[in-house]
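Input record, target 12 of the design panel.
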């Protein structure tokens, strides 16, 4: 065996060293884009966007609930306020607001199909009542 033949045999034997940069880049180019990190990043981004969307929905629901509670409290104060110690204009305002609240609630009941209500009220329609809520 000549020295050149021994060198060729050494080239054929698998080396224990990791592949060089050039070989790594060529191998990566052959994979054509199915990079596992890119796939993981895409799934992570999708999970975060879904999580953000759920968070927004919960926030909106909590905000709506808080607004309804505030409206309820205001209506309760108006409906059950003590009017005997008020002057005439304040009594008229309280009476008008009570009437408007009653019309609104009646319109909501009719719109939802719940309960039977009589045709009381002074000229308020369902669209006006819903716009106040």
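The sequence produced for target 12 reads:
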């Amino acid at each position: 065996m000549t020295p050149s033949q021994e060198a060729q045999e050494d080239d054929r034997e698998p080396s224990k060293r990791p592949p060089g940069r050039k070989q790594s880049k060529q191998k990566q180019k052959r994979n054509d884009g199915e990079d596992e990190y890119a796939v993981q990043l895409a799934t992570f981004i999708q999970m975060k966007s879904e999580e953000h969307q759920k968070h927004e929905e919960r926030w909106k629901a909590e905000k709506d609930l808080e607004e309804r509670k505030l409206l309820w409290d205001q209506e309760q104060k108006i409906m059950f306020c003590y009017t005997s110690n008020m002057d005439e204009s304040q009594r008229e305002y309280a009476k008008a607001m009570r009437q408007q609240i009653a019309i609104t609630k009646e319109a909501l009941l009719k719109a939802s199909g719940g309960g039977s209500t009589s045709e009381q009220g002074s000229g308020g329609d369902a669209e006006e009542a819903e716009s106040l809520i």
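The two ends are 98 Å apart (CA to CA).
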